[in-house]
Every structure is written in structure tokens, then in C-alpha cells.
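Technical annex B. To support the medicinal chemistry partners, we prepared a structural model of the target in complex with flavin-adenine dinucleotide, based solely on the information shown next.
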Amino acid sequence: MVRIGVVGAGVVGLTTATFLQEALPEASVVILADRFLQDTVSDGAAGIFRPGLQFQGPTPEITRKWLKDSYTYYKNILDSDKAAEAGVKSLSGYALSSKHPNIVKNSLLEPLVDEFRPCTKAELELHNMKYGSFVTTLLTECRRYQPYLTNIFKRRGGRIIQRKITSFEELADDFDIVCNCSGIGAKELCGDMTVTPIRGQVFKVRAPWIKNFFYTDYDTYILPGFDLITVGGTRQFDSYNDELCPHDAAAIWERAIAILPSLKEGEIVRQWVGLRPYRPMVRVEKEIMTFNNGKKLKVVHNYGHGGYGVMSSPGTSMHAVALVKELLQPKSLL
Ligand SMILES: Cc1cc2nc3c(=O)[nH]c(=O)nc-3n(C[C@H](O)[C@H](O)[C@H](O)COP(=O)(O)OP(=O)(O)OC[C@H]3O[C@@H](n4cnc5c(N)ncnc54)[C@H](O)[C@@H]3O)c2cc1C
């Protein structure tokens, strides 16, 4: 039996692990991670499907394929009876700017979604903005989606172990192949200095009367999930500060209220900080590692999704599973 280890239990690790079980039903799949569910970065993400143009795979074609595969995957969940349990919903809203027309365009998203149109004059006047698009896209809420994937993984016989991995060498005896889905942890685990945190701070607010999403200048966003609305945010490059900052909170709240004054009536349920695992290019690659004692280990990397890991993890995980299958071919034996 093929033994596969998956390092990481965020949205990328859980997605990869369940896709591996589907593609290789005879394999034993084990997840190893030091943080789970509400302790992961994935848990606090709003989960909107709206790639930034800086989201990059190795080629523009691969980037588009990851996004198309991901959108189709979530759309299929949306159209099934599992949508609410999995935390997947359809969401419409506005990208608005008073500064630049490019802010409201999105060449990666436009070809995927059913609705992407310029705002009408009345819509722009209502929000006192110069440029705008109205978009219908998807949102996946990890507070539902990660437990959903965890249940699928366990039901199929997957094992979960809480453990911090300090070197891939530790895993060489126990696994034939390892998928590395360690997010920001890859900086240390792989010595990958191109991995950089981008700090994000948000409010989670109960305001059920707000149905549409809003994105505006200065990283201000209001993104309604199932139960709570994510109100953000910040994008602080190379900041490791995982504490709440009262100055950021004040600025975020002031900007959000200016867009949607009725938010003031909402109940602030909690605040949250997460470090987006940014890498200039998301890494989905295979590698055969050789350690000092001569031992070898086949590794498939799947990390560095930055601010887009929830939306893009199905596509990158399908790619990672294809690389695992390639490494399991007899010709690639160590
Ligand atoms: C404020 C904010 C808003 C966001 N909004 C969105 C959004 O709207 N849409 C979107 O798509 N994305 C969004 N993101 C980005 C998204 O959260 C990330 O891209 C995604 O969560 C990355 O998932 P991951 O599984 O790689 O990382 P994580 O969720 O951080 O999981 C990493 C896992 O690896 C494990 N690990 C790491 N190192 C080790 C080690 N050495 N040993 C053992 N285990 C290890 C950890 O314990 C954890 O289980 C947002 C992020 C932030 C901060």
C-alpha cells in the first residue's frame, strides 16, 4: 500500500488530502500538522472567489487552469445539496473606486463568473464613486468548509496526527511520498526565503441585512459570509505581528462605515489577525530530496497561495495530485 503524508491541515492540506483519497483509493493518507481548524490562517479568511492579478502560477495558462478548475469545483458544490454544510454560497456585490478604473476590472475573474458588468450611473452615484463593477461570484467559508473536508477525510479512513515537523527527513521512513501544504510554515521547513507573510486584520460582524459584498480603494472590504460579515482590512507586507492593532481596527472600521453606514448597527462578534502565506509564484512542484544519510524522499509542494488560498486550493491541489501520480510511476522510483 502506498503511504502518503500530507503536512498541513489548512484549506490547502485538507483539500489535497481528500483529493488524494479520491484519486488513489488504495493509498493510506495521513495528515500531519501542528494547527487545526480555528487555529489555522484558513479559518479567518473571508473566502471570496476574487483573485488579485498578482496571483501567479508558473505560466499564465497554468494560473488560469488552476482558477477554472477551482471555480468549477466550488460551483459543483454550490449546485449540490452539500452547499450549506460545505459553506459554499453565491455572492453578488460591487468593486468600486474613486481613484482608478483598473481597480474595478479583473481579467482573471471575468471569464469565469456568470455576471460581471460595469456599474450603472445610478449605482455609482449611490456609492459616490467614479468607477465600479457589479459581480456575482462564490464564497467559501472555512469555518464550515474545513470541518466538512475533515469529516470526508476521516470517513474515508484518513488519519490525523498533531505534530510539528522540523525536517522532511523525519518523514522519510514512514512515507513513500509527502505533500507539503505547510503555508507560511514552508519558509522554515523548506528554507524558502521567498515566502513572506502579508498581515491581514479584520472584524467579524453580525449584520444580516447586508447581502452584497463591497470592495473599494485602500483595501476596504465588506464580505458577507453565512453567519457573519468579514470587514477588512490590511495588507502589511513582511509583518509577523499576529496581535490585533487598535489603530488598524479604527482605520478599518472608519473606512467601512463610510461605504456602508448601516454596518454601525451590526454586532462585532470578534476581531482577527492572519498572516497570508505569500510567495511571488505559488509553488506546486515535485522534488526528490536526498538527505545526508543517503535516504531519499519524494515530495510534492503545494504552498504560497497568499491572499487567495481558499479560492485556488482546489485547482492547485488537483495539480499536486497529478504530480503525486507521476512520482508514483515505476520509472520515477528512487
Ligand atoms: C485577512 C485575510 C483574509 C483572507 N481572505 C481570503 C479570501 O477572501 N479568499 C481566499 O481565497 N483567501 C483569503 N485569504 C488567504 C487564505 O487564508 C490563505 O491563502 C489560505 O488560508 C492558505 O491556506 P494554507 O492551507 O496554505 O495555510 P494555513 O491555513 O496556514 O495552514 C497551514 C497548515 O500547515 C501546518 N504547518 C505549517 N508548518 C508546519 C510544520 N512545520 N509542521 C507541522 N505542521 C505545519 C499548520 O499547522 C497548518 O495546519 C485571506 C487571508 C487573510 C489573512
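Notes passed to the chemistry partners:
The radius of gyration is 20 Å.
The longest strand covers residues 267-290.
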